[in-house]
Amino acid sequence: xxxxxIIVNLSYSLTFVAxxxxxIYWLRIILTIAQFGQLxxxxxxxxxxxxxxxxxxxxxNIIQIVILYLDRRDLPIPEEIxxxxxxxxxxxxxxxxxxxxxxxxxxxxENETVIKAGDTQADLLLILNGxxxxxxxxxxxxxxxxxxxxxxxxxITGNPASADVVAQDDLLFYTWxxxxxxxxxxxxxxxxxxxxxxxxxxxxxxxxx
Length: 209
Fold this sequence. Notes:
The chain is α+β, with helices and mostly antiparallel strands. The chain has helices at 3-19, 24-45, 48-72, 82-87, 94-102, 152-157, 178-187, 189-207, and strands at residues 105-110, 113-115, 124-136, 139-144, 149-150, 164-176. The protein is built from 8 helices and 6 strands. The mean pLDDT is 86.
């Protein structure tokens, strides 16, 4: 059997295997190997048009493979927030989480009201250290601690908060502005979809307590 026939059939076989793989990273790797076979076939047949376009396809696939590889790298999570990632944001990749985290900033309050009943929560708040009391009609109905969101029901629904949230002594929390999260929703909807599920689970847990 001529070499060119072996090469082209092997290339088509690898293409078939690639298309049967759901994981995009390995799909592109195997598809690129198959395209090298097509490139060799074009060289043997002196088919310059096929060779030119196959070369373009190979270059594009190699670039995408590099991008996917960089996205898949196991980036380290800073020790001070590792428990938050493990317990809350673990459905995100480490790269997704770190990009999301970098969009926020640390805030600090001491014995101050974080949000008042009747106000609408504009930003997303997550407690880092300290505690906050949820107060309704002067009575404490709950205490929020590290890893819990503040007034996320108001943030999600856009409705006014139903209770006051008051910092207990020194409260350190992380905040993301709505504008920042809206921009992230447009640029990376998958990450924001995971955040929506996290907030929904947190909200459901509070409502069932």
